[in-house]
Amino acid sequence: MPRRIAHHRLTVDDHIMIAHSLDDPFFGPAQRLHGATLHVRATFERLQLDPHGVVMDIGAASELLSAVLDPLRHRNLDEHPAFVGTASTTERIIAHIADQLAEALPSDHGLHVLEVAAEENPQARAAVRVEL
Ligand SMILES: Nc1nc2c(c(=O)[nH]1)N=C([C@H](O)[C@H](O)COP(=O)(O)OP(=O)(O)OP(=O)(O)O)CN2
C-alpha cells in the first residue's frame, strides 16, 4: 500500500484595526489615509502530529498570533518601522506577520509550513505561505 502523506493544519484567527495610506498612484483613492479591519488567520502545518496528538496547542497558537499582532493594533502603519517608505498593502502586512510568527516559534516547533491570510472585506483576501 502506498504511504500516504498527511498535512495536519491548525488555524487560529484574530483581527486588527489599522490606519494607513498607500502612497502610490496605483492605489487611487486609497492613497489617502484610511482605516481597515483585517481579519487575520494563521495556519500552522506539520506532517506528523506531535506526541500529544496535536499540530500545536490552540491556546499557545492564539497567544502567539495575538502577541505578534499587538504592535500593529490601532496603529497608523505609515509610522510603523516595518512599513515606513513602503505601501503597507495587505500582502506586505501578512508577510510581516508571518515573519514575526516564524521568529516567535519555539526552536523545537516541528512545523513545516506557516500560512498567514487576511481578509480585508468579505470579497477580498490575501495569503502567504512560508516554509519553515
Ligand atoms: N492587492 C491589493 N490591492 C489593494 C490593497 C491591498 O492591500 N492589496 N489595498 C487597497 C486599499 O488599501 C483599500 O483596501 C481598498 O481601496 P479601494 O480604493 O477601495 O480599492 P479597490 O481596489 O477595492 O477599488 P477601486 O475600484 O480600485 O477603487 C486597494 N487595493
TrEMBL record:
Catalytic activity: 7,8-dihydroneopterin 3'-triphosphate + H2O = 6-carboxy-5,6,7,8-tetrahydropterin + triphosphate + acetaldehyde + 2 H(+)
InterPro entries: 6-PTP_synth/QueD, 6-PTP_synth/QueD_sf
Keyword Zinc included in the entry's annotation: yes
Keywords annotated in UniProt: Lyase, Metal-binding, Zinc
Known pathway: Purine metabolism; 7-cyano-7-deazaguanine biosynthesis
Pfam families: PTPS
Obligatory cofactor(s): Zn(2+)
Zinc in keyword set: yes
EC number: 4.1.2.50
Enzyme class, broadest EC rank: lyase
Assigned protein family: Belongs to the PTPS family. QueD subfamily.
Stated name of the protein: 6-carboxy-5,6,7,8-tetrahydropterin synthase
